[in-house]
Specification:
alpha+beta
Length: about 100
């Protein structure tokens, strides 16, 4: 079910459901992005691909301007950037014949 963006003045806001829809992920993934980014900011260790801090809070619900999420999606690193286990070096002696 699509979430209807909330409006306050001229700005359009989306909650985690809207973030998920814009990013093409599940709401659970969007919640994970938010939780990790919040933990990184609290530890003063923000990462380049972290979900930005909410632009506002409606009650206890974090919300972002649609433009904030669009900018984040346009600038976040692609899949596989800076994460995971490094590849093992290729054995140079096995290929020498």
């Amino acid at each position: 079910m699509a979430r209807t963006p909330r409006r306050r003045g001229a700005d359009e806001y989306v909650d985690l459901g809207g973030v998920a829809e814009m990013a093409g992920v599940t709401r659970g993934s969007a919640q994970t992005y938010h939780t990790r980014a919040t933990a990184h900011r609290r530890a003063d260790d923000a990462k380049p691909g972290d979900l930005p801090a909410p632009d506002a809070t409606f009650g206890q619900t974090p919300v972002w301007r649609r433009a904030t999420i669009t900018e984040w999606l346009d600038t976040r690193p692609g899949r596989g950037v800076g994460g995971g286990r490094p590849w093992a070096p290729k054995d140079q002696t096995a290929s020498a014949s």
